[in-house]
Specification:
By secondary structure, the protein is α+β, with helices and mostly antiparallel strands. The protein is built from 9 helices and 5 strands. It starts with 13 loop residues before the first helix and ends in a 6-residue tail after the last helix.
Length: 300
């Protein structure tokens, strides 16, 4: 495990390094400065854990007085999260005599990703189905559970722990994002998840860990530490800008009218009659061409 306690190929950054494998080693050279948003999220997770443990009748210490970012909204979000897990548990008990709930469970998916580990907010195991739930306190980006690589990595780590103990056929992955009124759930069969891990996750993780592969820019660059100095991203942005500023091959009606006005001003301005005849002739041709164009005569 890296000395700072953060995995090089973390589940939370997997969307980035799966698309852009070399970014993992590139970001490794940057200091992890953190942010207020991350600190707020950490406080919210601590409160969620406390609320859920209390709801389950487990011993828990109220962390509120030590939370820098605590407010009423955070308290309401954490209460809603605990209530959501309890609803899942109630539904599970209708078909399963002894469902299992794990809170802030460390999971290890290093079978596919070198040094791959993380912490799942909540795991609920019932007959045939394992639920993996992740709390998102962020407000800026709407997070979907559909084809979410972070959730898949957590699910793989959970299967490593429990697949040999419980009869699990399906994994249900849920994002609980209360500040965006977003509860997103995606289901995948265990076989399909293992196939993705073997065919997509492991080969790409091997490239990323070695610092190999191709740079690729996209929406996953948003949280990349190297984004402001990344040459590949700069080249991609310049290419986009080239298309933004590229003029169309044909003049528009507005372009022709602007040329006519410019020609007219130059022709009527005092002293301009002394200019060469070629300039005046060109102006007349512009004006006549503009008139023909506006009249619908394409000139051929």
């Amino acid at each position: 495990m890296p000395p700072n306690g953060h995995a090089l190929l973390s589940a939370s950054s997997s969307d980035r390094w799966l698309h852009c494998p070399p970014s993992a080693r590139l970001c490794e050279t940057y200091e992890d400065k953190g942010s207020n948003y991350a600190a707020e999220g950490t406080d919210a997770h601590a409160l969620c854990e406390y609320k859920l443990r209390k709801a389950l009748g487990m011993e828990a210490v109220d962390p509120t007085e030590n939370l820098t970012w605590f407010n009423q909204e955070m308290d309401d979000c954490a209460s809603g999260y605990a209530a959501f897990i309890m609803e899942l548990l109630a539904e599970a008990r209708e078909t399963c005599a002894d469902p299992v709930v794990l809170i802030e469970q460390r999971v290890d998916f290093s079978r596919w990703v070198e040094q791959g580990f993380g912490t799942s907010d909540a795991i609920l195991i019932t007959d045939g189905t394992m639920h993996v739930v992740d709390y998102k306190h962020g407000l800026g980006v709407l997070v979907s559970a559909e084809d979410n690589p972070q959730m898949k990595c957590y699910a793989l780590g959970a299967l490593e722990l429990f697949d040999a103990i419980y009869d699990i056929d399906t994994v249900a992955m849920t994002i609980y994002q209360p500040r965006r009124q977003n509860i997103s759930t995606s289901q995948i069969s265990k076989e399909e998840l293992y196939r993705w891990a073997d065919e997509v996750l492991k080969p790409t993780a091997d490239l990323a860990f070695a610092g190999d592969g191709n740079f690729l820019c996209g929406e996953w660059c948003g949280f990349c530490k190297a984004k402001n100095e990344c040459r590949a991203r700069a080249d991609a942005n310049l290419e986009l800008a080239r298309y933004d500023f590229k003029l169309p091959p044909l003049l528009t009606d507005e372009d022709i009218e602007d040329i006519r006005r410019s020609c007219r001003r130059d022709h009527l301005r005092p002293g301009r009659h002394q200019r060469s005849r070629s300039r005046v002739d060109w102006s007349r041709r512009c004006t006549c061409s503009g008139r023909r164009h506006l009249a619908g005569d394409g000139g051929g």
